[in-house]
Amino acid sequence: MKINNYNRRYWPVLIIFITLGAYNSTFGLLAVACMIAPVLTAFFKGRMWCGRFCPRGSFFDHVLARLGDRNRRIPQLLKKTWMRWIIFISLMTYMGFNLYIAEKSIYGIGAVLFKMVIITTVFGVLLGYLFAPRSWCKICPMGTLAMIAGRGAKVPLVIKSSECRLCGICARNCPLEIPVHSFRDVGIVEDPDCLKCGVCISSCPVTALKLEDKNESRGAVEIYS
Ligand code: SF4
Ligand code: SF4
């Protein structure tokens, strides 16, 4: 089983953030960076932030992936568009309401953001333990906005139809279970949820995949023998 190599160093940031936020909720304001960055970068790079820099995504890939059943999959329910929007609207409404009633201070706003990170992280870790590690990334509100902003051929994942044998190894290794090989005739994996993580590229036995980005060569690492 291959796993993302780009983001292996970032999961401790999540632990540090939670520790600091528990000590003083003002540190919750740091969450703004992780809310804005995935959406802004998506305009140029698709969901690359989610795949390469998000500390929570790194935690899913490098901690949760080592725990529990190795063959667990993303629940079909989480792949439904309507479910994604229910989660999005629910969490945004909840956050908006909490900001409305919060103490109007840096501390009060930080406390709300910290609470949102804790709620979504607990939910994401539960999903990732029971199902595929990156299950949360199918419904993450910031991931949803990044998915919309990243539509189009931004850092396209190219699939060479002349090389691909349709073995499906790429799709089986993809953390978001994208049917990579189904795009063989199109030539570009057009799924806007692609995290640009490079796992499929490293998994392909015939080098039929190529991410048109300068840093693609770092590839993935093996976590299960
Ligand atoms: S792993 Fe490579 S050869 Fe196999 S289906 Fe995917 S792109 Fe095609
Ligand atoms: S399609 Fe490839 S690059 Fe995109 S998320 Fe799946 S494994 Fe990563």
N/C terminus separation: 8 Å
- Find the structural class using helix and strand composition: mainly alpha
**β-strand number:** 5
Broad shape: elongated
Mean pLDDT comes to 91
The gyration radius over C-alpha positions equals: 18 Å
Largest sheet: 3 strands, antiparallel
Please tell me about this protein's structure.
With 225 residues, the chain is mainly alpha-helical. It has 2 domains: 2-149, no CATH class; 157-220, Alpha-Beta Plaits (2-Layer Sandwich), CATH 3.30.70.20. It contains 9 helices and 5 strands; from the N terminus they run E-H-H-H-H-H-H-H-E-H-E-H-E-E. The strands form 2 sheets. A 3-stranded antiparallel beta sheet has the order 3-2-4, with no helix packed on it. A two-stranded antiparallel ribbon has the order 1-5. The mean pLDDT is 91. One iron/sulfur cluster binds next to helix 9. One of its GO terms (cellular component) is plasma membrane. One of its GO terms (molecular function) is 4 iron, 4 sulfur cluster binding. InterPro entries: 4Fe4S_Fe-S-bd, 4Fe4S_Fe_S_CS, Electron_Trans/Redox. Residues 155-184, 186-214 form the 4Fe-4S ferredoxin-type domain. Pfam families: Fer4_5 (PF12801).
